[in-house]
# Entry
Amino acid sequence: MSQGVPADGGPTDFDIPNPYVLLRRAGLRPKKGLGQHFLVERAHLARIVEAADIGADDTVLEIGPGLGVLTGALASLAARVVAVEIDGALAEIIEETLGDRPNLEVIVADILERPAADFAGFAPDSVGARMASPEARRVEPDSEGARESSPKSWQVVPEFKIVANLPFYITSAVLRHVLEAPIKPSSAVVMVQREVADRMIAKPGRLSILGVAVQFYARPTRICIVPAGAFVPAPAVDSAVVRLDVHPCPPIPVRDEAVFFRVVRAGFGQKRKQLRNSIAAGLDITPADSASALDSAGIDPRRRAETLALAEWAALTKALEGVGFGLET
# Structure
């Protein structure tokens, strides 16, 4: 059980039980199929709590709480904590050790079963009504001038935050599930494999579909590297903690998100191919038409997908939409 975090947000000591003792007591073993590796390094646990920046009015959705080492610290800071754990046996351990917390709810479920905001208790109707007010929709002008903050499909709840330890096999699925949902958290602190973290924060020149998608919805910041030895049992590779600050509105002007990502997928569809050819193949148009759209967007057709910035993907999408190349919806 955690002892909590001081009011100034500084690091604190964590009472970390031996995972094997807890599991043995319950007649359990770590399940490789669920990617169960339990973080036991005090300093890294404290950094996750600090990065989450939990306030007294916040609701925290903890995805994959495991044995509940972080859960108690989050509950000491937040108004509510909803811990969603797919393994019912682990959920029982959390209930036994932290069940006296009145602001903690433990749910046995697959986070992908329904929207994250639903688990956290944010009804679409109530959120929509609040976000419809002029004050909630106002944004500061950016380099392209002021834009309305958020279409109906993009609503950020300031007091809704996520903390998650994501096994490799569901990392991309959970990130998409959280970020593409109509109701989004204001931030998420996620622990992922180090290689995945590198892709999330990559700059043009090393971008991937994952990097484009994450950066379209949020500003990612790597908090720290977590060595494999900080876990029990130790995984094969190091991990990293990444904080995602969700954009209150799309960071680039895009008419249709689905069309935008169709173009992005086409661009990355054939690795090491020039954009002229990968866009043509992905959208079933001629290389000449692909090159024409790229020229119209101010992009050299010989470039490769990993070199494009988000604004360039938006410009290319607009150019393709302008002539109707393979983008019928």
